[in-house]
């Protein structure tokens, strides 16, 4: 019989928490659980979801222990895995990350450009704090982190807590692979064998084959050149308008290099003028999420608590939930599953900085990820990735050293920003907005 794991979900008040808990319950046969603990530093927000999760646990898996807390010792003692999805500064700060750059005609986005840099400066300290709680209370546990911006957080964990059991992950590749499977008429993305390289939210597929080795790229290219990743399914129609637009715009990203299939967020770097033109500086994605997902999830939780049952109010399970269970399973039971993870390059991409945190396929077992060699990459991608990896490194250096100069350099270097003077204006506004979260910059 498989050993039962104890899980701490850090960011218990996240809109994704109920979906993760539900996914964990649905996978008891392959990933049995002893205890689930929710941890957050915002007791009030967490309790609204935790009370509904407690009802769900009682109805679906009464044998699993469940609790929620804001106390680190209670949260991090006796656990095997921490699944972390914290949002430092909540949606209120995301809104500023998006709106401040837009004021200067620059892309305003959660993880890309100056907004992503600002969010990175907020996330580094608290994610490291979670790693340190784990070191203190459960030194053998694994941290599976998907708190954003994952690229900057990954570089920070590499610099500040090297050699620890920390894996940074993102659901964007698996989300797009699910769409590719739909385009190909396959039941599951797992019927595909892929090759991919890049940075987080900044990558390209170079090969998609079926399990018999047949090349599936031609069919995908034909679709993507016309429709991007837009598909004619109910699921796609239900995506928010901004996501539908992002999926569709991938056709123009693809046009730049028709040898590869791009991740959608490259649009922010390759078509920033288009993105800004199609943004509403008074109503950004943060507003869309606050009016949409946040209201829906917290509204459902309130109904479950009021009714005392989750019947009629099932939570939705996002694509990343199953990915996280796959990853935890791979480590707990040495499954050697092939997964896309954010890891130190260390030669896997031959002609790229060995110290950069790259997103590449890895074989995952009980000792963690073993990256697969992706060979040499073309000049176009190497140029883009070099610039972006240096942005991410500069942000982490700025955080460690408290350096205004390095953060100004980071924002200036971002492909989304037109000049050092614009970068400086954005930076000065971001410093003011983030004074409760960033280290003091000199
Ligand atoms: N890597 C990926 O592909 C991926 C996919 C989806 C979401 N995410 C990330 O997951 C996170 C959660 O997203 P959301 O939209 O549900 O946000 P949310 O604001 O609903 O939830 C985040 C929670 O984190 C808590 N939190 C903030 N700082 C904390 C700290 N220092 N310690 C403990 N808890 C803290 C907040 O109180 C809040 O309850 C974000 O970082 C988001 O970007 C990542
Ligand atoms: O704007 P949000 O908060 O809805 O999402 C931001 C996150 O977007 C990515 O995840 C996507 C995924 O790529 C897409 O395929 C679909 O399934 O929705 C997900 C978001 O719900 C991204 O990977 C995350 O890092 C972002 O936080
Ligand atoms: Mn992501």
UniProtKB/TrEMBL annotation:
<keyword id="KW-0479">Metal-binding</keyword>
<keyword id="KW-0408">Iron</keyword>
<dbReference type="GO" id="GO:0005975">
    <property type="term" value="P:carbohydrate metabolic process"/>
</dbReference>
<protein>
    <submittedName>
        <fullName>6-phospho-alpha-glucosidase</fullName>
    </submittedName>
</protein>
<dbReference type="GO" id="GO:0004553">
    <property type="term" value="F:hydrolase activity, hydrolyzing O-glycosyl compounds"/>
</dbReference>
<dbReference type="InterPro" id="IPR036291">
    <property type="entry name" value="NAD(P)-bd_dom_sf"/>
</dbReference>
<keyword id="KW-0533">Nickel</keyword>
<feature type="domain" description="Glycosyl hydrolase family 4 C-terminal">
    <location>
        <begin position="196"/>
        <end position="417"/>
    </location>
</feature>
<keyword id="KW-1133">Transmembrane helix</keyword>
<keyword id="KW-0520">NAD</keyword>
<dbReference type="GO" id="GO:0016616">
    <property type="term" value="F:oxidoreductase activity, acting on the CH-OH group of donors, NAD or NADP as acceptor"/>
</dbReference>
<dbReference type="InterPro" id="IPR015955">
    <property type="entry name" value="Lactate_DH/Glyco_Ohase_4_C"/>
</dbReference>
<dbReference type="GO" id="GO:0046872">
    <property type="term" value="F:metal ion binding"/>
</dbReference>
<feature type="binding site">
    <location>
        <position position="94"/>
    </location>
    <ligand>
        <name>substrate</name>
    </ligand>
</feature>
<keyword id="KW-0326">Glycosidase</keyword>
<keyword id="KW-0170">Cobalt</keyword>
<feature type="active site" description="Proton acceptor">
    <location>
        <position position="265"/>
    </location>
</feature>
<keyword id="KW-0812">Transmembrane</keyword>
<dbReference type="InterPro" id="IPR019802">
    <property type="entry name" value="GlycHydrolase_4_CS"/>
</dbReference>
<dbReference type="Pfam" id="PF02056">
    <property type="entry name" value="Glyco_hydro_4"/>
</dbReference>
<dbReference type="InterPro" id="IPR001088">
    <property type="entry name" value="Glyco_hydro_4"/>
</dbReference>
<feature type="binding site">
    <location>
        <position position="285"/>
    </location>
    <ligand>
        <name>substrate</name>
    </ligand>
</feature>
<keyword id="KW-0472">Membrane</keyword>
<feature type="binding site">
    <location>
        <position position="201"/>
    </location>
    <ligand>
        <name>Mn(2+)</name>
    </ligand>
</feature>
<feature type="binding site">
    <location>
        <position position="148"/>
    </location>
    <ligand>
        <name>substrate</name>
    </ligand>
</feature>
<feature type="transmembrane region" description="Helical">
    <location>
        <begin position="7"/>
        <end position="25"/>
    </location>
</feature>
<feature type="binding site">
    <location>
        <position position="170"/>
    </location>
    <ligand>
        <name>Mn(2+)</name>
    </ligand>
</feature>
<keyword id="KW-0378">Hydrolase</keyword>
<feature type="site" description="Increases basicity of active site Tyr">
    <location>
        <position position="110"/>
    </location>
</feature>
<comment type="similarity">
    <text>Belongs to the glycosyl hydrolase 4 family.</text>
</comment>
<dbReference type="InterPro" id="IPR022616">
    <property type="entry name" value="Glyco_hydro_4_C"/>
</dbReference>
<keyword id="KW-0464">Manganese</keyword>
<feature type="active site" description="Proton donor">
    <location>
        <position position="171"/>
    </location>
</feature>
<dbReference type="Pfam" id="PF11975">
    <property type="entry name" value="Glyco_hydro_4C"/>
</dbReference>
